[in-house]
Amino acid sequence: MKNKKITSKRVGNTPKCYLMRWNPEISDYSLDKYRELTAKHPESFGMRWSIYDYKDAKEGDFFYMLREGEENGGIIIWGIFSSDPFEGEDWRGSGKKSHYINMHCVHAENADTQPPLSLSLLEKEIPEINWRKGHSGESLTPEQTFAIETLRTGIYNDPEDSFDADAGHGAHLSCFDKDIESVIAEIGKIIHHSKPYDSANDVVTDEGISDLTYMSTKGKDLKIHTILRNDTDSLEVLAFVPYAVNDRPVKFRLVNVQEYSNKFEAVITVKYGDNELSFFDIEYGLHKELYQVGEDYNFALSAMAYGAACVPEGEMTVEMSGDEAMRLHLSDRHDEPAMLSLDHLVAFLQLDKAYPDDGEFWSPVMSRVKKVPCLGREFYRMEICIANENDSMETLNIPLIARISDFDKKPTMKNSVRGNLWLQGRLIEEGA
C-alpha cells in the first residue's frame, strides 16, 4: 500500500495514540484475510479491533498496529480511529464482553515481507516499550508516541521534506509559492505594496540592539508581513511571511515559548482544553515582553497550507462486514456489508519537535470557499476545524489559505480536505 501521512483528532504535541496488537497465529483475523483486504483496498480500508484502554479513546485518535511473532513482526499498519469504543462479544468466544473500535487504516505493509519498522528495530531503538507482551489497544505516552513517529518518519519520509527552523522562512514560503526563489526575487515588489503598521524599539536580536519596523501588504484574507531592521544608516529585510488573516481571538493558556536565535521570532505553545498546540507568532517581537508562562492570552489562529487536497470520495467511507455493522447497530443483517461515513471526521496532529508549528490535518470544509488573489498568485480561503467540541474545549475553526494549483477542483462544504499546514497566530490584546 502506498504510504500516506496520517493525522489525529487530538490537538498539539500530546496526541492520544494507541498500540494495537495482532498475532495471526492465534487471532481469528487470518493472514489470508489480511492479504485479501489489502489487495482489494490498496489505498485505505477499515477494520474493527479490540481495545484495552478504551475509556479515554475517541474517534480521530491515532494508532499503530504491531504484528507479533518472529516471522515478519513489527508495525504493519497505522491510521486513525473512525469511531468511539463500543461493547461487543469477546472475539475468543468466551461469552464475555469486550470493547472494540473501528479503525481507518491509511498505510499497510505486505504480509509476506519484513516491515521496515521491524520488531528487532523497535526493540533496539525504543526499548522502554514491551514489544513482545501486552494488551491490544494500550495507550501510549506522548514520549513513546514521539519516539515511534520519529522512527517512522525517518524511514518513510524524504529527508528533503524537513527544514532548519533557524535558517529563515524558506520552507514556510512554499506555502505561498512552491518556487521559493521567485518569491525571494520579489522582495522589492512586496515592500512596495506594503505599509508600516507598528514598530518595536531597542529589540535584542542576533545582530545586537535594533529598531524593528513591521510592514504588511493590504488584504482582508491574505497578507505578506515583513520585518525590517531600521538602523541609523541602513534598512534591512529580516523576514517576510505570508499570513492568513484572522481577527477572531480565542483564549489560550501559554505553556511554552521557543524563541528563534534571532530573538524576534518564536513558536508559541498553548493549552486548549486538555490539549496543546503550537503556532508561529507573526508579531512576537512586538509582544515578547508581555508573555508569562501560565497566563491566559487571546490569540487569533490561522494556517497556510504547504499542500492540500480534497479527500477522494472513495476514502470518505470505511467498509465493514455485516457482523461488524450489526454490533454497531448500523444494520440488522449479518450477511450485508455496511459503510461507515467519515463526513464529519476532524483530525489534527503536530508531532515534530524540531518544527512544532507544522501539522497534518483532515477536516470537513466548514465555510464557503472563496478565491483570493495576492501578488499575481491565486489561493482558496476556507474554514477548517482542528478541534471538535468536548467537555474541556469548544470547537476550534480556523481560516486556511491553500494554493488553487493544489486542487483538482474547487472544494465545497460537501468536501473534506487534508494536507500539511503551517499554523500561525497573533496576539490580540484586551480592548484591541
Description:
- The protein is mainly beta.
- The chain folds into 3 domains: about 140 residues, ph1033 like fold (Roll), CATH 3.10.590; about 70 residues, no CATH class; about 140 residues, no CATH class.
- Helices cover about 10% and strands about 40% of the residues.
- The protein is built from 7 helices and 23 strands.
- The strands form 4 sheets. Strands 1, 2, 3, 4, 5, 6 and 7 form a 7-stranded mixed β-sheet that branches. It has a 5-stranded mixed barrel with strand order 12-13-14-23-15. Strands 8-9-10-11 form a 4-stranded antiparallel β-sheet.
- A hairpin with an 8-residue loop joins strand 21 and strand 22.
- The termini are far apart.
- The N terminus is likely disordered.
Element-level helix/strand string:
EHEEEEEHEHHHEEEEEEEHEEHEEEEEEE
By helix and strand content, what is the structural category?
Answer: mainly beta
Q: Report the span from N to C terminus.
A: 51 Å
CATH first level of the largest domain: which class? Answer: Alpha Beta
Radius of gyration, whole Å: 24 Å
The third-level CATH topology of the largest domain is ph1033 like fold
Which term fits the overall shape? elongated
CATH superfamily of the largest domain: ph1033 like domains
Beta-strand residue fraction: 35-45%
Largest beta-sheet characterization: 7 strands, mixed
The tally of domains stands at: 3
Fraction in helix: 10-25%
Q: What oligomeric state is this?
A: single chain
Poorly predicted ranges:
1-14, 158-167
| Helix count, DSSP H or I runs of 4 or more residues | 7
The total beta strand count reads 23
In CATH, the architecture of the largest domain is Roll
The average pLDDT is 82
